[in-house]
């Protein structure tokens, strides 16, 4: 089988999306809509847990939200005024139904559902301890570690147990949790992953991004602060900050690529941030050319900024097919080779005889960029200059973004000139790390107190990598080998 994205092995993977509703008679339907808006954060699976005051009910399935929550029968099976949902792309654990979130357990204090955007960096270590104490794991997801830590805590309330559990974990996380008495939202102390609070009439909403609020007509209230726990119940919203004060290290790649361009994250319009990145990129790496062409869709705002600053016309030289099915049967190797055109095709009228600036968000292994450059040349471009709206990705992410190992990252093996030769471009340039920070409103990167998590560019990991440093990798095989 050939997946819909012919570059599946050469793109960063969206992490996951969290959406919860408290106090609305159609809570599950609103959650399904919110998850639809967050679909870009995970396309492997989706799940919703709803509570009607007496019983928790759940529906989880592989595939997209619309495929699994589009029927009246499914939604009728999720009654109640509170619900919690999740879209998933696996960053740890196998791709299987047992790992689809929200995870649910009947605990001493009642039913408890939880879902997670991010990665725990000491999950292997904690899981090993829990298994030795008798915990029986039902999934290979790092999120289940939190469930067991909550279950075995001796604290008196669900919230206190969750705090007790989170004091033991390292990692980047935004969590949604649902008990019989409250909807809970949590961000890790450094605020690496996003989470926002919204309101729809008397109902309260938590969402990974503000675009999830927009789709249901909810008002954006504020970002959940780094290290904050918001507890939503019939009395309203209360805020807890049990982890002390820390400087924020929000993931800068949310601004570059992951968040939807119509979202507001950390008080910043993602679309405007990407345009500013393109402007800074043009200032740093101008080249004489005839047109600026984005690699759709993620390269579009940066290309608009690049074109505006450089004075070179913006053109849609590559057209994306948005209507490709989820899979495509490939009967021959020749068809596999043509997979590049499943999603993208060159617009020859705009490219022929032109010197082209191609703008994309990143280079991972380099195979994507190689095929795109080749496609543009075959369409008649006389020169192809590649411009990237992120610095070279030299390190893997361990905080919730599925990335290749460092040895597979092109920028960890080659300098920029060699990378340009590898992908076949006439020139290649990336925005500098200081240029990226300037685009985000900073004078440059302060190495002593950087504003963002930029570990994939700098190797500066702000959260301990306990499992990695111990030689353990959070994968299905390593987890199952220890519990077998």
CATH-level-2 architecture of the largest domain: 4-Layer Sandwich
Q: How many separate helices?
A: 19
Structural class: alpha+beta
The main sheet comes to: 7 strands, antiparallel
Q: Domain count, please report it.
A: 2
Kindly provide the radius of gyration, computed on alpha-carbon positions and rounded to a whole number of angstroms.
Answer: 23 Å
CATH topology of the largest domain: Glutamine Phosphoribosylpyrophosphate, subunit 1, domain 1
Question: Widest sheet: strand order?
Answer: 4-3-5-2-11-10-12
N-to-C CA distance: 31 Å
Tell me the number of strands. Answer: 25
Indicate the topology.
Layout: E1 2-3, E2 16-22, H1 27-37, E3 45-51, E4 56-62, H2 65-68, H3 72-76, E5 82-88, E6 103-107, E7 110-120, H4 123-132, H5 143-152, H6 158-166, E8 171-179, E9 183-187, E10 196-200, E11 203-207, H7 211-215, E12 219-223, E13 229-233, E14 236-240, E15 250-251, H8 253-258, E16 264-265, E17 268-269, H9 270-284, E18 291-294, H10 300-310, E19 318-320, E20 327-328, H11 333-337, E21 344-346, H12 348-351, E22 355-360, H13 367-378, E23 383-388, H14 410-413, H15 416-423, E24 427-430, H16 433-439, E25 452-453, H17 455-458, H18 466-469, H19 476-483
Parallel strand pairs: 15-25, 18-22, 22-23, 23-24
Antiparallel strand pairs: 1-20, 2-5, 2-11, 3-4, 3-5, 6-7, 7-8, 8-9, 9-13, 10-11, 10-12, 13-14, 16-17, 19-21
Helix pairs in contact: 4-5, 4-19, 5-6, 9-10, 9-16
């Amino acid at each position: 089988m050939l997946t819909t994205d012919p570059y599946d092995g050469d793109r960063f993977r969206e992490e996951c999306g969290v959406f919860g509703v408290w106090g609305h008679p159609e809570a599950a339907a609103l959650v399904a809509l919110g998850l639809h808006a967050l679909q870009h954060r995970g396309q492997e699976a989706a799940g919703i847990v709803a509570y009607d005051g007496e019983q928790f009910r759940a529906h989880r399935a592989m595939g997209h939200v619309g495929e699994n929550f589009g029927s009246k029968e499914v939604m009728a099976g999720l009654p109640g005024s509170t619900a919690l949902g999740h879209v998933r792309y696996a960053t740890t654990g196998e791709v299987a139904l047992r790992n689809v979130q929200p995870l649910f357990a009947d605990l001493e204090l009642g039913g408890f559902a939880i879902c997670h955007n991010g990665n725990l960096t000491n999950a292997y270590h904690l899981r090993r301890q829990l298994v030795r104490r008798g915990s029986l794991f039902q999934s290979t997801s790092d999120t289940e570690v939190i469930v067991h830590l909550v279950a075995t805590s001796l604290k008196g309330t669900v919230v206190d147990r969750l705090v007790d559990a989170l004091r033991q974990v390292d990692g980047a996380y935004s969590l949604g949790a649902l008990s019989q008495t409250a909807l809970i939202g949590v961000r890790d102390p450094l605020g690496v992953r996003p989470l926002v609070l919204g309101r729809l009439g008397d109902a309260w909403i938590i969402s990974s991004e503000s675009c999830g609020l927009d789709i249901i007509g909810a008002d954006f209230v504020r970002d959940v602060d780094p290290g904050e726990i918001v507890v939503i119940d019939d009395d309203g919203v209360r805020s807890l900050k049990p982890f002390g004060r820390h400087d924020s290290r929000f993931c800068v790649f949310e601004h570059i690529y992951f968040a939807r361009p119509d979202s507001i994250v950390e008080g910043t319009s993602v679309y405007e941030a990407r345009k500013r990145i393109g402007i800074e990129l043009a200032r740093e790496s101008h080249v004489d050319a005839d047109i600026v062409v984005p690699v759709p869709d993620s390269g579009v705002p940066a290309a608009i900024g690049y074109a505006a600053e450089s004075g070179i016309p913006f053109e849609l030289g590559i057209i994306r097919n948005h209507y490709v099915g989820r899979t495509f049967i490939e009967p021959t190797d020749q068809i596999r080779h043509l997979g590049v055109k499943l999603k993208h095709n060159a617009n020859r009228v705009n490219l022929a005889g032109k010197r082209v600036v191609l703008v994309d968000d990143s280079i991972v292994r380099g195979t994507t960029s190689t095929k795109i450059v080749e496609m543009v040349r075959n369409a008649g471009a006389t020169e192809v200059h590649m411009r990237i709206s992120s610095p070279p990705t030299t390190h893997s992410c361990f905080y919730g973004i599925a990335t290749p190992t460092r040895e597979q990252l092109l920028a960890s093996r080659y300098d920029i000139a060699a990378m340009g030769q590898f992908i076949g471009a006439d020139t290649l340039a990336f925005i500098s790390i200081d240029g990226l920070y300037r685009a985000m409103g900073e004078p440059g990167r302060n190495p002593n107190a950087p504003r963002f998590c930029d570990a994939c560019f700098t190797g500066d990991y702000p959260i301990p990598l306990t499992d990695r440093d111990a030689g353990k990798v959070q994968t299905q095989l390593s987890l199952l080998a220890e519990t077998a």
